[in-house]
Amino acid sequence: xxxxxxxxxxxxxxxxxxxxxxxxxxxxxxxxxxxxxxxxxxxxxxxxxxxxxxxxxxxxxxxxxxxxxxxxxxxxxxxxxxxxxxxxxxxxxxxxxxxxxxxxxxxxxxxxxxxxxxxxxxxxxxxxxxxxxxxxxxxxxxxxxxxxxxxxxxxxxxxxxxxxxxxxxxxxxxxxxxxxxxxxxxxxxxxxxxxxxxxxxxxxxxxxxxxxxxxxxxxxxxxxxxxxxxxxxxxxxxxxxxxxxxxxxxxxxxxxxxxxxxxxxxxxxxxxxxxxxxxxxx
Length: 282
What we know:
With 282 residues, this protein is an alpha/beta fold. 34% of the residues lie in helices and 25% in strands. It has two domains: 177 residues, 3-Layer(aba) Sandwich (Rossmann fold); 74 residues, no CATH class. The chain is built from eleven helices and ten strands. The mean pLDDT is 88.
């Protein structure tokens, strides 16, 4: 990558200590994200991609989670060594998140305005007119009549509008990295496309880096410049998105791509991933 690394993850290892066993969720993951870059981390549920994303700002509950090895550096600083005050500045202010279920991420008893305003006051104390700033960001994400709708409660908004509010809340803090963890899973297909188009336009407009977490290769093409494929806590393949999609090298990557529905396909049903064959090195 030509741009300097903004985020560097080296041999990251995370496990969860349960009553009867230890689960190794992330097993030696390494990658970099440059300023302004868009990277997709792709894998099925349980592959470790969301744990990796949450680990970037130490959002995992400790215990049961344990960081057992490796390093995370953001702008050269060691995240795993940060104190509580430094972590509060990092979370939201430098690395912000949007999640797959906006209806559970938004607090139902507070208005949209109060929730976005809280984030702005915490990370941008220099802002004098917080109300105007809230309206500006809601307008930026396509909320019509933002000055009025910011006084609504989450239940008064559709799922797509709730996700736009979550994006506005994340971007209002002006982060360097936006982590989008399955941002379209809870939305219908038409709204999914709108949200992905919105993220792409906002990324270009504000120049932030984006880490897209998804199980769906179908939304990666045309959005991410580079893709990392995770399987059972490891990155098994990575490279430019076009190359990985057109010529996958790992059997798991090929299996994921074959699961994408194709118009006009004569297959009676979608293919499933043969984990037994993968375990044997197929």
